[in-house]
Amino acid sequence: MVLRNAGCEHMFVSILHADLDSFYASVEQRDDPSLRDRPMAVGGGILLAASYQAKACGVRTAMSERVARSLCPDLVVVPPRMSAYTQASRAVFEVFHDITPVVEGISIDEAFLDVGGLRRLVGPPELIARTVRSRVRSEVGLPISVGVAQTKFVAKIASAVSKPDGLLVVPAGGETAFLHPLPIERLWGVGKVTSAKLHARGIATIGQLAAAQEAAVVGELGAAAGHHLWALANVRDPRPVTPGRRRRSMGAQRAIGGRPRTGDELDEMLMGLVEKVCGRLRDSGRWGATFTLRLRLADFNRVTRSRTLPLPSAATQTFLRVGRELLEQASPLIADRGITLLGITIAGLTTPDRLQPTLPFDVVESGRVDQALDEIRERFGNTALTRGVHVGRSRGWEMPRLPE
Amino acid sequence: MKLQVERDVLAEAVTWAVRGLSTRPPVPVLAGVLLEASEDSLTLSAFDYEVSAKVTVPAQVDEPGETLVMGRLLSEISRSLPAKPVSLAVDGAKLTVSCGSSRFALQQMPTADYPTLPISPEPSGSVQGDVFTQAVAQVAIAADRGDTLPILTGVRMEIEGDKLSLLATDRYRLALRELTWNPSTADASHVALIPARTLSDTARALGASGTVGIALGHAAGGEGLVGFEAGRRRSTSRLLDGEYPKVTAIFPTSVDTVAVLNTATLTEAVKRVALVAERNAAVRLRFSEGQVGIEAGQGDDAQASEAVECNLQGPELEIAFNPQFLLDGLGAIGTAYARMSFTQPSRPAVLSGQAEADGDADESYRYVLMPVRFAS
User: Fold this and answer.
1) A81: number of CA atoms within 13 Å, CB side?
2) Which of A122, A231, B88, B143 gets the highest tally of CB atoms within 10 A of its CB?
3) How far is A343 from B252, CA to CA, in rounded Å?
4) Which residues of chain A are within 8 Å of residue B246 when distances are taken between CB atoms?
5) Cα(A253)–Cα(B350) distance, rounded to whole angstroms?
6) Does B253 lie at the interface with A, CB-CB under 8 angstroms?
């Protein structure tokens, strides 16, 4: 580890990103010896997780079982046991909390730990990272990768690069050397769309992005995303580790010019937003109960209308229906005072294992259309399939976002 | 066209006729209500290709004729008029509505573009109005309100001779009501899937009448329609299309535990305890000899518990439900006592009514509810 600026405590690397490897699959392999060291996956219809042996054959999370089997004929697929994963996750987080009070859970299988305050008490971050790994291995029986760095986003990239079952320390001052050779897709918020835009400008690595003119990047990607990504590439990420944060809602919005809009135009935009957010909900394996329609009027006053479903859902069609009803109710207001932004938020998020089971009779599986659409978009990109009304229209700005 | 009609009669008729009209119809004329004046009556019709409504009221007609005007507007106007006779007269391109010293002039809409309403059907049979209203309300609560599976937004009406059954499910619970009706032919046999919302509206609007006529199949003027009539009101609705899931197998063939409880006491207790059940969280019911313990909340959350007297037959049992679904069922049985039948805590439970604590079960209405898994 390179020690510079030794007099200034916060300049030390102190942030750990701990990320369980192929979490659901690892739990299954831990609990069933016959699954160890072989290609296996968790899921049914759609894969929720794949073991590293399966990933070696090209099997990926969220792939359909059928596609996965064609890639890997020996693949064993087991049904998910959500309660086992919840339990394992709790045990892992107990280890985290036992090591440091500053834990920010990102999801069921990953967290940031700030261990800066432990230097004198326990030891340097690299030692603590080894402790995290060995304790999770011995106490919970799961492999975990840890990245250590001075900032959260570098730590996260480091853990991803170290996988599987790895440890990588990026020393303070060594960020540029570590990041700049990596492809831009390693940055948070660089999805297919942004990646394609940057590649079109000849930017393939984080180093090339950092070297580009900030104004040019902003011009290509828009203000928010452009500034954000350029700052990240230049290793500027001042965000602290905040314990207890968990995503409570998901949303999307679209700013629109002040000219009057017809009901059909607004309906089209609503459809696009609902598809986007429901797709993200399904990606993250969560369902939402409360739908909020957010409007900004021509005078820039904001208005919201919301409704809670009797049961949570992640179905595009269900939220579209609710959204249309709310938009319809707000239509006199819009006609009266104009509209400059349309947004939606879905809150009340839960994981489906808390949901009401269904009665045991056969019925055409709901959400089959959504699932098929998600699979197509997963394989061929977001623009592969679009609603008739959206053909030839801009989908609005894709904001960079944290992985769900 | 020129006529006089009582204010209350007009207001009630227009409001009923236009109640199903969409605020944003696919074609503008479908927002209209058609007024037809003949010898001594005024007929109002509305139609949006899904639902049609037609009502005839007595009127003093000076000049027969017809006109089409905005339905909701006429409804709002007629409800706000003073309690005096209303006169309607076509005057050039306008319909004049006058009442006391108030005058309104409404733009006429082109009647040529207005679609022909489905033929007023001859009923396939009839059912007592209040029985029908109650039966529809009992079943419609279980219909799906979402759009993920359109077929489940309907109520399945099946007719076999003098037996009429109504069934709906949203996959979490299922409601089945069986009743006797008067078919016009003894061998009547029909199955129809009616949109639950339309059926509820119709049953509420027509149920006040003594009897409600129901027309199905050819009698309704086509396979895709159902017709209702009561007094001088007639309505039709388009049926839902598709294969309804085979659900009869979910009624358990044998029962292990039966609990009989006072409906009102149980309802109140579940409502109270459910106050601490966060969104979608379950209420847990522990049935033992003589009482059921009702609990909600766990861990760091707020908790509540209450005990209610109960008559138990069979093994003790612990089971959990979504409180709203349980309350929906308790609210629908309409009897002083509730009878709950169980097999396993993970298998569907059946709720039905019972008039007296130690009387016989009334199985004309059954509400099947899927329990929630116990939080581990």
Assistant:
1) 14
2) B88
3) 47
4) 361-362
5) 45
6) no
